[in-house]
């Protein structure tokens, strides 16, 4: 074999070697990101829920503020017990289920509309499709504990149908739960409707905000949070630099186990924050 052919064969071999390693690395990063979405986001939601739990016991607000505690929702049939926050912005739903602006508070006349994630950030409404007619939903707040009875089976509606979160009959007390459908997408919505137990007398509504400022469930598209770009780019560069330094150091004779162990100590936490920033650039869904 000529020297030229041998050199060409070596280049092709190195190319496929680099390509194979790159694909393996990309696959591992993708799996890591999926794991972050499924479980990593639940860590931040868990911390927020612990904070809300402490507030629920010691200092429940008489008038909730956006992002703050509203009360607790419990659905025994699907094993759900979560603290509800005021608002359905992305930052609100990272903490737990959120009360729509314009909604009355638990136990009041009107439609108490609550949205929640179905797959990420603790997936409070992950089993919303398993709720059935006659199931009990309890809402607890500073004003007491209120029982709602589910009327009918879960319904699928268009993602643009925001009327379900509004009060259409101010003389009755209802509850509407809203989440994405099917799981992993935001193309539609799934809702559950319940009415206040007839043995409980509802009070007059004091809406979270004016109905004219009603917030819709989040459905922003790709790259909607431009403020996340600097963080993502910076951390991406840092991750690449760590990987390159580790590879070069190991090839120069340093102990590979020591080098890669040390690199991992820095790489993993930075990767976590990188994924946090990257999530802000993805299409939002609940």
Concise account of the structure shown:
The chain crosses the membrane at residues 227-248, 257-278. With 286 residues, the chain is an alpha+beta fold.
Strand coverage percent = 15-25%
CATH level 4 superfamily of the largest domain = Sortase
CATH architecture of the largest domain: Beta Barrel
Main β sheet profile:
8 strands, mixed, barrel
Class by alpha and beta content: alpha+beta
Rg calc: 25 Å
Uncertain segments are: 210-218
Per DSSP E runs of 2 or more residues, the count of β-strands stands at 9
Global shape: elongated
Order of helices and strands: HEEHEEEEEEEHH
* Terminal CA distance: 61 Å
Range of helix content: 25-40%
What can you tell me about this protein's structure?
This protein has 286 residues and is α+β, with helices and mostly antiparallel strands. It has 2 domains: 46-213, Sortase, Chain: A (Beta Barrel); 220-286. It is 37% helix and 20% strand. The protein has 4 helices and 9 strands, in the order αββαβββββββαα. It has helices spanning 3-58, 90-93, 229-251, 256-279, and strands at 69-75, 80-86, 98-99, 110-115, 136-141, 144-150, 155-158, 173-181, 188-196. It has an 8-stranded mixed beta barrel. Strand 1 and strand 2 form a beta hairpin. Helix 1 packs across helix 4 (256-279). The radius of gyration is 25 Å and the shape is elongated. The N and C termini lie far apart (61 Å). The model is unreliable at 210-218 (pLDDT under 50).
What does the secondary structure layout of this molecule look like, with pairings?
Layout: H1 3-58, E1 69-75, E2 80-86, H2 90-93, E3 98-99, E4 110-115, E5 136-141, E6 144-150, E7 155-158, E8 173-181, E9 188-196, H3 229-251, H4 256-279
Parallel strand pairs: 2-3, 4-8
Antiparallel strand pairs: 1-2, 1-5, 3-4, 5-6, 6-9, 7-9, 8-9
């Amino acid at each position: 074999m000529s020297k030229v052919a041998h050199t060409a064969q070596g280049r092709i071999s190195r190319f496929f070697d680099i390509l194979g390693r790159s694909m393996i690395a990309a696959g591992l990063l993708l799996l890591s990101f999926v794991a972050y979405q499924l479980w990593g986001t639940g860590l931040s939601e868990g911390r927020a829920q612990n904070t809300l739990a402490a507030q629920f016991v010691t200092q429940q607000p008489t008038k909730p503020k956006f992002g703050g505690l509203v009360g607790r929702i419990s659905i025994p049939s699907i094993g759900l017990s979560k603290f509800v926050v005021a608002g359905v912005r992305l930052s609100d739903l990272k903490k737990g289920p959120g009360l729509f602006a314009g909604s009355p508070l638990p136990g009041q006349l009107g439609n108490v509309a609550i949205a929640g994630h179905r797959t990420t950030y603790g997936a409070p409404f992950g089993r919303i499709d398993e709720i059935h007619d006659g199931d009990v939903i309890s809402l607890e707040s500073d004003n007491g504990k209120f029982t709602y009875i589910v009327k009918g089976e879960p319904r699928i509606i268009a993602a643009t149908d925001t009327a379900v979160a509004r009060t259409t009959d101010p003389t009755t007390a209802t509850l509407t739960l809203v989440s994405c459908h099917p799981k992993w997408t935001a193309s539609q919505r799934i809702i559950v409707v319940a009415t206040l137990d007839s043995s409980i007398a509802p009070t007059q509504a004091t809406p979270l905000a004016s109905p004219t400022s009603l917030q819709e469930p989040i459905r922003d598209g790709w790259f909607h949070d431009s403020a996340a770009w600097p963080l993502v780019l910076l951390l991406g560069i840092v991750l690449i630099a760590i990987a390159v330094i580790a590879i070069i150091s190991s090839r120069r004779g340093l102990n590979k186990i020591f080098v890669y162990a040390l690199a991992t100590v820095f790489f993993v936490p930075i990767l976590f924050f990188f994924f946090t920033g990257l999530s802000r650039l993805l299409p939002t869904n609940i």
